[in-house]
Q: What sequence folds into this?
């Protein structure tokens, strides 16, 4: 059973699709609350090299980003730790405090246990803003936008894996302010964060919205001029926001936004997500991180 | 840093004590919701022997029990899995379905990943009933009660560890109906579930309530006549409810309860929790399961 089939089978255990969003979005929604849960495991998601600040920051970022992707405001955290002998618990508390202060989160619960491999299991609870953003909702004619240049997470990770003492890929931040803004303003039709890669995540919006999406190669190259476009499309764990905007609202939305964002493509009738440039026309679903499971 | 100091340090990261209950209770409380998070790890909390039904049932029970201990009703579950190669994912779905059906839970989210050791990280969300039950609140003169005879979880676990193909210690059930009843009726002054052992859990009520508690040896022996009293006091993961009742409400509470429960001691002014019998007078804090962390 591959990951896809496993998730399809899990969906049969979800009765109330209004809450679970059919396990197809970044988080679950319970009345006014948005809840996300994520696991990070040593030697699967990170390499432990005494870099607790980095690891904890990334674990928290990954969950906060899920709340931002739904236009919510992250507020509470429950932290579960599987702690191996080598983890300095005092240092762990300090690292957790840094991440919680950065994102203004309040610790409200959790669990710890001994474990051979270090792992982190986080539940983040946020509150909804005016609009709940989902992957579904993109309409023909919408513009698809990204909150910042992407592709660098992959580059920095490769630098770490090649043995350089490189921690930049742990330090990407969740787009908390922009997520909150998008959840409070009219005209945003769908949203997700880039966790698996721009190619796969764009495809997920196209599928959920039942629309066709073109990403424009020239726009992407302009944003990340020093990176091959294949890397831009396949770089995961970026935590940039990817969202579609009704063009009638675009100017106003951009003008008042807490940060600049960038148009990288268009939504039309049809299905599938494609890279479109002068020289290429390719399915986007092949670009991105497919889980090992 | 031992477990106690670690949890004390974590408390400094909890700002809103109304929500976290200072990390001192069985779950956190967010408006109308009660949220509990628990991790179970292979070779720490269970031994994997193809017994997925048992393991998943126990993992879910442990979390549902936390909600019952607060007088709430468990409703939603987010399931995180660290899956090693040997886990049959189809079987895992079936096992999860059995547990969710048993407790009438709706799956609303989660996360899965590859992991060397199998582990389960569960977040359960319940709703509050009329009264929120905490460990604090016991008053002098209250009766302390247990929802069923205890001590057998330890006995069954030892049978498994001695090599018998014994799974009974996985099959204890959470007291969902009684928990809901206690949360809806007047006179219950404190409550927890027996997860670390009757001795330690009674002590936790005494400390949180700033009162002294006597457990009566003769009452305990009558309930579990075939077990040594030391085992009755130290058997963990029982998931029975342990609660104190204002004696003015006792008769009425017992008469209408969905199941019989049993008086095992009294609350008086003072501090500490003690076993009191014809032959013994001992501190209860030494009886129970202290975590390896």
A:
């Amino acid at each position: 059973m591959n990951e896809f089939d496993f998730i399809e089978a899990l969906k049969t255990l979800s009765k109330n699709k209004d809450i679970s969003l059919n396990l197809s979005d970044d988080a679950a929604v319970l009345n006014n609350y948005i809840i996300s849960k994520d696991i990070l495991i040593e030697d699967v998601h990170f390499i432990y090299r005494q870099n607790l600040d980095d690891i904890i920051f990334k674990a928290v970022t990954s969950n906060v980003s899920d709340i931002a992707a739904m236009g919510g405001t992250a507020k509470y955290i429950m932290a579960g730790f599987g702690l191996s002998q080598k983890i300095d618990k005092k240092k762990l508390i300090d690292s957790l405090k840094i991440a919680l202060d950065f994102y203004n989160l309040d610790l409200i619960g959790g669990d710890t246990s001994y474990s051979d491999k270090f792992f982190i299991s986080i539940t983040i609870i946020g509150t909804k803003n005016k609009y709940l953003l989902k992957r579904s909702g993109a309409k023909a004619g919408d513009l698809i936008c990204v909150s910042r240049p992407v592709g660098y997470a992959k580059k920095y990770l490769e630098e770490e894996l090649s043995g350089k003492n490189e921690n930049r890929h742990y330090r990407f931040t969740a787009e908390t302010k922009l997520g909150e803004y998008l959840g409070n303003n009219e005209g945003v039709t769908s949203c997700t964060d880039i966790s698996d890669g721009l190619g796969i995540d764009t495809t997920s919006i196209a599928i959920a919205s039942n629309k066709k999406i073109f990403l424009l190669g020239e726009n992407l190259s302009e944003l990340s001029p020093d990176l091959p476009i294949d890397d831009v499309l396949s770089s995961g764990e970026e935590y940039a926001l990817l969202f579609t905007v009704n063009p009638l609202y675009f100017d106003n939305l951009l003008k008042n936004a807490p940060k600049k964002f960038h148009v990288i493509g268009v939504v039309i009738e049809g299905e599938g997500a494609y890279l479109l440039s002068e020289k290429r026309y390719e399915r986007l679903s092949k670009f991105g991180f497919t889980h090992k499971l």
Summary: The first strand of chain A starts at residue 28 and ends at 30. DSSP finds ten helices and twelve strands in chain A.
